[in-house]
Amino acid sequence: MRIIGLRHLVPLMLLPLVFSVTANEDYQAAKWDPIHFQPAIDSATNEQCLECHLEILIRKPLKTSPAGVKRSDTEAWYQTLNSYAGEQESFHYRHLQSQLARQVMNLQCNFCHRGSDPREEAPASHADNQDDSGYNLRKMVDVEKTCLRCHGQYDYKVMNLPGPWHETRDMFNDSCTLCHQTIRTNRHKVSYLHPGNIEYLGNKDADVCYGCHGGRSWYQTSFPYPRNSWPGISDTIPEWAKDRPTQSEARYRLDTSADN
Ligand code: HEC
Ligand code: HEC
Ligand code: HEC
Ligand code: HEC
Ligand code: HEC
């Protein structure tokens, strides 16, 4: 039997070190890959992001929370509605993969991820990030420009309604489109939504509309929606609408020249 000498072993012992250094260099390079930042992130496709971040699509929530609560034993109000389907899933799943998400939305990674700073996650904190790159303190996404669009309060006051939806829905036949087939009809013509499917599903079930306009309101405020002109709009602008844009954001606007 031949005994392996030390001079054979040393290179072998060094191997893991060599691998870990290369892995670490790759890791650092990937973490700071320019695709994460402006301007490259603006034109990044989901496929490009998923080349490194496939975990975003396959990760599942824990079966049991660290405190012992089973995921199957927890249910939020909106999860009891017909507009919700399936088991507890991850945040990304609910915005990219669930049936409802794919029907009503067309979200891209870079709709939410607009560049963040892995070093501090705070703008203007060091020499490298003096530009206002559009992200918020300690957040990876700017919630007011993203989440708030679909998770703000149901603003019944601007609608001149006597109360919040849960108190008045019976009065209006449990239908948003009762009013909205004639009011603010020029809606959702943006690339990150599927306007046709929204009308189809929302007409059958107001919880689909409410789901993005108060039914899952994680915020105390409402998004200041643009007020796209519609056939029958009055010439007098209500006080609350004076500062509102009159068109959806250019970045997302679909060509609506065929309408109106
Ligand atoms: C070349 C591989 C690669 C590509 C392509 C890539 N990433 Fe990353 N990303 C990484 C690595 C590595 C990290 C660091 C992960 C960690 O520290 O946990 C990271 C971190 C992140 C983070 C967390 C940042 C933080 O502040 O902690 C987000 C969010 C992210 N990536 C989103 C994206 C998006 C969106 C895209 C497409 C525009 C993308 N990534 C493309 C490799 C990549
Ligand atoms: C609806 C908005 C939204 C979309 C769309 C979205 N993300 Fe995220 N992402 C978030 C939020 C919010 C976080 C959590 C940020 C935090 O913890 O501060 C996050 C976290 C992450 C992280 C780091 C933390 C983690 O969970 O591992 C990565 C990586 C990431 N997203 C990649 C992606 C990729 C890739 C896509 C597209 C396939 C994508 N995201 C689409 C909002 C979004
Ligand atoms: C374009 C509209 C839209 C945007 C933007 C959006 N969401 Fe959502 N969100 C939805 C819809 C629709 C659902 C319901 C999906 C389903 O039931 O499958 C949802 C579901 C959720 C849920 C519940 C998930 C669950 O397991 O039931 C949370 C939490 C959430 N969103 C947080 C956020 C946050 C945080 C952001 C911003 C980073 C965000 N959303 C951006 C439309 C949106
Ligand atoms: C009784 C009639 C009525 C009903 C029912 C109604 N709305 Fe409205 N809604 C209005 C009016 C009026 C406005 C304001 C029109 C304007 O811009 O002058 C409005 C405005 C809105 C706006 C824009 C708010 C803003 O800040 O720009 C949204 C979003 C909206 N409604 C969603 C809904 C949803 C979702 C439902 C059902 C859950 C619903 N509405 C039910 C009458 C109604
Ligand atoms: C997936 C989330 C989602 C669903 C479902 C949804 N909305 Fe919206 N709604 C939005 C977003 C985001 C905007 C802002 C779009 C933009 O920037 O032009 C908006 C805008 C509006 C506006 C203002 C339109 C304008 O430009 O003046 C009205 C009114 C409205 N929605 C009513 C409804 C009604 C009624 C339904 C059901 C038939 C519904 N929404 C379903 C997300 C949603």
Structural features:
260 residues, mainly alpha, 11 helices, binds heme C
Radius of gyration: 25 Å
Low-pLDDT runs of 5+ residues are: none
Distance between the termini: 89 Å
Beta-sheet strand percentage? under 5%
What shape does the CA trace take? globular
Describe the overall structure.
This protein has 260 residues and is an all-alpha fold. The chain has a domain at 47-112 and 147-255. The chain has helices spanning 6-31, 46-53, 55-58, 91-96, 99-104, 109-112, 148-151, 165-168, 177-180, 195-204, 206-212. The longest helix has 26 residues, at 6-31. The protein starts with 5 loop residues before the first helix and ends in a 48-residue tail after the last helix. The mean pLDDT is 89. The structure holds heme C (HEC) (5 copies).
Q: How are the elements arranged and paired?
A:
Elements: H1 6-31, H2 46-53, H3 55-58, H4 91-96, H5 99-104, H6 109-112, H7 148-151, H8 165-168, H9 177-180, H10 195-204, H11 206-212
One heme C (HEC) binds at residues 46, 49-50, 53, 56, 92, 95-96, 107, 109, 111-113, 139-141, 146.
